[in-house]
């Protein structure tokens, strides 16, 4: 109608045309994480041609199909090695892996620890919903002890990973934990991590009301979200040993934030250039 402005969402340009509606259940934390990521890009006026978004399998893994930027949806657990390859081939890109706890820390756990150890410049954002949501709510590597899942109907007897402590212990230069009930802090944290050079990790405790929540008396999606806010305690200590996570308390905040650690891509390309120079000077011969 003439004179009537068309309503457009301010983040519309960051979402691939034609992919909506998304698959996420009402009340899922994944939408909050996606929104915080897009808002962080927007705040930074990030050049999308300098970005590569990579995800594995699972509910959060759908992000690579939704974001309107160069993206790749890879096989289960293999988001980080694919991101590693992209980064080494194109060091000018900012590589962001967004995936779930099962994808990143069960099937892909080995890749996570070695990418962090090598300090590859990438940001890994993990939606930790305490179970395998997409496949029906099975026990995963972060499921809290005693929690009911479809594969642990009498309560999990496993010892879960503390993702913050794991990331810190294997060498990540930036480690933070937030919940989906803290979207502003998450957005600022993503902006900070996007500006850093090295392996950065952000854990986001993300409600899965239809899987984990339903089996563990978390109430409605709204009540689950409210509970996350109520039990979260912000620390400013920057100490991974403070990163407690339990049924009555979740410590959130930044736990590692360091500068100056040599980055893998810089080192490998530095070595390549040095070898090429030595070959040109006749100091080194490469047998083919
Ligand atoms: Fe979200 Fe859980 Fe639904 Fe997956 S199954 S979309 S994690 S609420």
Folded structure, characterized:
It is built from ten helices and nine strands. It has a single domain, classed as 3-Layer(aba) Sandwich (Rossmann fold), CATH 3.40.50.970. Helices cover 35% and strands 17% of the residues. The longest helix has 17 residues. Strands 1, 2, 3, 4, 5, 6, 7, 8 and 9 form a nine-stranded mixed beta sheet that branches. Helix 1 crosses helix 7 and helix 4 packs across helix 5. It starts with 29 loop residues before the first helix and ends in an 8-residue tail after the last helix. The mean pLDDT is 96. By secondary structure, the protein is an alpha/beta fold. The site of iron/sulfur cluster has 12 residues, from helix 8.
Category by helix and strand content: alpha/beta
What is the alpha-carbon Rg in Å? Answer: 20 Å
**How many strands appear in the DSSP assignment?**
9
CATH class: Alpha Beta
Principal-axis shape = globular
The CATH topology assignment is: Rossmann fold
The main β sheet shows up as:
9 strands, mixed
Architecture (CATH level 2) name = 3-Layer(aba) Sandwich
Q: On the 0-100 scale, what is the average pLDDT? A: 96
Helix content: 25-40%
């Amino acid at each position: 109608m003439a004179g009537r402005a068309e309503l457009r969402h301010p983040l519309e340009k960051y979402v691939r045309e034609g992919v909506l509606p998304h698959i996420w259940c009402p009340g899922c934390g994944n939408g909050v994480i996606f929104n915080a990521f897009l808002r962080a890009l927007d705040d930074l006026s990030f050049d999308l041609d300098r970005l590569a978004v990579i995800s594995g399998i699972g509910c959060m893994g759908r992000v690579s199909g939704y974001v309107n930027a160069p993206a790749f949806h890879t096989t289960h657990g293999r988001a980080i090695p694919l991101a590693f390859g992209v980064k080494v081939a194109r060091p000018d890109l900012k590589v962001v892996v967004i995936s779930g706890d099962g994808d990143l820390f069960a099937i892909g756990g080995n890749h996570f620890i070695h990418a962090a150890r090598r300090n590859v410049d990438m940001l890994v954002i993990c939606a930790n919903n305490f179970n395998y949501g997409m496949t029906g709510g099975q026990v995963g590597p972060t499921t809290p002890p005693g929690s009911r899942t479809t594969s642990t109907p009498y309560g999990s007897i496993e010892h879960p990973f503390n993702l913050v402590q794991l990331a810190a212990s294997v060498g990540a230069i930036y480690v933070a934990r937030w919940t989906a009930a803290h979207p502003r802090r998450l957005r600022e944290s993503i902006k900070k991590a996007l500006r850093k050079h090295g392996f950065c990790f952000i854990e986001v405790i993300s409600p899965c009301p239809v899987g984990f929540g339903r089996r563990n008396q978390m109430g409605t999606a709204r009540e689950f979200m409210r509970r996350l806010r109520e039990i979260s305690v912000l620390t400013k200590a920057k100490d991974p040993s403070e990163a407690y996570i339990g049924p009555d308390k979740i410590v959130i905040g930044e736990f590692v934030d360091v500068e100056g650690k040599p980055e893998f891509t810089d080192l490998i390309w530095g070595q390549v250039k040095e070898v090429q120079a030595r070959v040109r000077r006749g100091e080194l011969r490469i047998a083919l």
